[in-house]
């Protein structure tokens, strides 16, 4: 894993410290009242995001930082949970891991067959 993508609720000191510890690039939407924090190493990416956000509108900021991928990831998890449910059936960690791999395999197979096509009926 090279980066961590999260919404503004995760714009916290502890998460930036964790990203710094594991050498992850944090792609986190700054809060509306976010301020630059100088002289703190783990806030350099956050400061960069705040500066970009001040110069651009939200759509441009998402493109420049790669934040837009978060929406696709959330959609994928929604699809997975909607298809297979919100909890695992197995109790052991090994079996849950296998269950998740099987679910991912099946979702990918469903995508190979074809995604649904929606038409607006008025």
Notes on the structure:
The chain is mainly alpha-helical and 122 residues long. The protein has two domains: 3-67, no CATH class; 70-113, no CATH class. The protein has five helices and two strands. The chain has a two-stranded parallel sheet. Helix 1 links the parallel strand 1 and strand 2. The mean pLDDT is 87.
Essential attributes:
2 strands, single chain, 122 residues, 2 domains, two-stranded parallel sheet, mainly alpha
Describe what is shown at a glance:
The chain is mainly alpha-helical and 122 residues long. It is 54% helix and 7% strand.
State the end-to-end CA separation.
45 Å
Percent strand: 5-15%
The side-by-side strand order for the widest beta sheet comes to 1-2
Helical content (DSSP H or I, runs of 4+):
40-55%
Task: From the alpha carbons, calculate the radius of gyration and give it in angstroms.
Answer: 19 Å
Question: Layout of helices and strands, plus pairs?
Answer:
Elements: E1 3-6, H1 13-21, E2 25-28, H2 44-55, H3 58-65, H4 69-84, H5 93-113
Parallel strand pairs: 1-2
